[in-house]
């Protein structure tokens, strides 16, 4: 028995709530081919953030990471990380 068939009864009864992440290709390969399993999931497409959005996200996380790791992160390091990724 595969994982999908093990999960379907619990999902149908509302005993299991889950969030998953996969690629579109894997979704098509493993979820879409099983109509009963597909009915129990709601796909949410999340695109990659733009470089500008990534910089904004990193700036929002900067203080938390500086405190946790005991380091200073320059703005130029954030910009470089976003543009090089």
From TrEMBL:
PANTHER family per record: ATP-DEPENDENT CLP PROTEASE, HEAT SHOCK PROTEIN 104
InterPro entries linked to this entry: ClpA/B_CS1 (IPR018368), ClpA/ClpB_AAA_lid (IPR041546), ClpA_ClpB (IPR050130), P-loop_NTPase (IPR027417)
Domain ClpA/ClpB AAA lid positions: 50-85
GO molecular function: ATP binding; ATP hydrolysis activity
TM region positions: none
A GO term from the CC aspect: cytoplasm
Name of this chain's protein: ATP-dependent chaperone protein ClpB
Native organism: human gut metagenome
A Pfam short name: AAA_lid_9
GO biological process: cellular response to heat
